[in-house]
Amino acid sequence: MTKKAKATWNGFSLKPRKEMPEGLWVRCPGCEHMLYKSAVQKNLDVCPSCNYHFRIGATDRIRYLVDEDTFQPILEEMTSTDPLDFQFRGTTYKDRIRADEQKSGAREAIQIGKAFIKGRGVVLGVMEPNFLMGSMGAVVGEKFCVAVEKAIDESLPLIVVSCSGGARMHEGVVSLGQMAKTSAALARFNDRKGLFISVLADPTTGGVTASFAMLGDVIIAEPKALIAFAGPRTIAETIKVELPEGFQTAEFLLEHGFVDMIVDRKDLRSEIARLIDYTQK
Questions:
Q1: What's the pLDDT tens digit per position in 47-81?
Q2: Residue 4 belongs to a domain
Q3: Residues 6 or more apart from 166 whose CB is under 8 A from it?
Q4: Was 50 annotated as part of a binding site?
Q5: Is 47 annotated for ligand binding?
Q6: Which of 104, 110, 123, 247 has its CA at a distance of 20 to 30 angstroms from the CA of residue 140?
Q7: CATH code assigned at 232
């Protein structure tokens, strides 16, 4: 039996190149450094070099935010119907829902439930950017309103983390109607003197920004999050002017009074607990 010839270079034998395991490294969009994925995850999916906050799914967000094993989901099996029989370029809305269920492991673009944050009981809603980019359709609107009613019934603070591309075009006017529906639910909550803390992650845009996301008693943004109704390119092309530096970032909105504070992900639990304690004095 012939031995397999070894690769050589200038008379030196070369060892076979080891393949790099997939998923070991991740590139930071902020500083463009290559980082160990495990190091980023241990840092709550925040770059340890430049503090860039990676976009995360609802399950990770809940795990980072609430006390361990305290999240009790509500309506987790609720899924969307197809009220308009929507199709686009040969793909149906139902096909897209099935694909995003498999990709994200979620049934819809928001998870709601009861939980504890540093021992404080809350009703929590967290949007799922990996499911149709966290867009708001009938199910998102319904689950949000159920969360509000649960907070009213049990006299608990309402915490909602938004991460969304806006209203869901696949549901047309049904989706747009959720803007009014969620806002009306928050008006009832406000009449009961409830505390609503709205957390804005990157991105928070469109109909979500134009409704419940900006109606918090306290509005918190993550660093450098894009927060807008229409995107910067759409605005620039419409009004034909050069937009200010950093336009529609969390920092720009803080400077102009649209958000109350910017909080790093690692400090969010403590800040929410502090705000709850402050309002309950």
A1: 999 999 999 999 999 999 999 999 999 999 999 99
A2: no
A3: 135, 136, 205, 206, 207, 208, 209, 210
A4: yes
A5: yes
A6: 247
A7: 3.90.226.10
